[in-house]
Amino acid sequence: MSPAIPNATRPISRLDRPWTSASTATVVGPLHAPTRQALVEAIARTAERWPESRLGWSIDESGRRWRRPAPAHLDAVADGMVTDLDADPSLDYGRFLTGLVHDKREDRPLAFSVGHDHVALRMSHAIGDGRALVALLSRLLETAATGEPVPFPPRPVMPPFVSALGDFFGRSPKRVLAAARAIRHAPSAAEVATRPWSPQRVTLYQRIPGELAAEVRRWRKTSASGATSAAVGLSLVMRALDLSGVPISPEVRVLYDVRRYLPAQYPELHGNFSVGLLMAMSAAMPAARIAELIARAGAVGRPLTALGAGLMFGRRPPASPVTAPLRPQAELAFTYLGRPLPIERLPWRAGRVPVWSGSVQPAGPQGLTFAVTETGRAVHLSASFHAGVLDTGRIGHALTLMAADPIAVLNGRDSPRPAIENLGV
């Protein structure tokens, strides 16, 4: 059992509450990893000095309040948050991440594993989004290495949504009308034949090697002028799924970091401040057009209005469906985390390919979430979905195509190169 937490509760904010039933997982390595004890001490000392790190926090039975451990319990709580890794994650990153998301260690919202030159964590999405995950992991590893707790930002005085709303729309009231015109609603679900289902979340992983990733970057400059790396990544995913016979919904959910709307002087924000934007997209759409759609949505403040709608109506996690379509259509979600400087600065093992990848919660039975990350010159791809609904073989084939010959996929043809082994479940 977890140590008793006799005091210090706080309401879970509306930004975090919709995510209490969702979880993410990540793994980094090979690197000069801390010992288990060093990581335990880093957690305890950071939680003591910087409580807004959310380290050691738990969620009460109602799912509406944080429970914060009393100082006397921090060492015991931290000790229960870290285990030694039994197996080397590099043997199969996809299978490792699949196992990690099902690790319900005493229902802790945050749990770490360390060993075999790797560090992994499973995190309730209520703790924070991808940006928060990067900050949490990198700062803890630095603290474990130096023994000095790295600072975390304090709780903001001004609520972030209010601050972002005032800064963006206050500077140009005409933006309000433009944002209202850009509001999109999820299409009504069509009547389809269904069957009972239960969650069976899995994650598959592949890596685009550095030399092929460099070809993709050249392709973006020569064949997709104006496209961002994120847009090229999304185009690559949609085209690979199309080539592999995976039907996807015409509405793609693109993750957008709303922090970019905060005033320049606003303090660093730890927690959730991202939103998924529904956009009409297809495999045939050029990468430059994808980039244009995302940029246009950002320019009119659509992420702010979408987040505002979530704050008004999404006070609780959505109920999980009890049925799935007999003929499923993948509901694609895409998140591009790129190459954050804190990840680049991790103490990677020389001569080894650095890996940073994760598993992101798929939304419902037809959910298919792709996460794209980068380390050095390589690009890492992960796909998370429910194996009992979507076709694991076809999704695995799409990942293999992207890793073996991404340029062929971007140009809309199957790969002439030999297929490589699929690293997944």
UniProtKB/TrEMBL annotation:
Gene3D superfamilies: Chloramphenicol acetyltransferase-like domain, Nonribosomal peptide synthetase, condensation domain. This is Diacylglycerol O-acyltransferase. It comes from Couchioplanes caeruleus subsp. caeruleus.
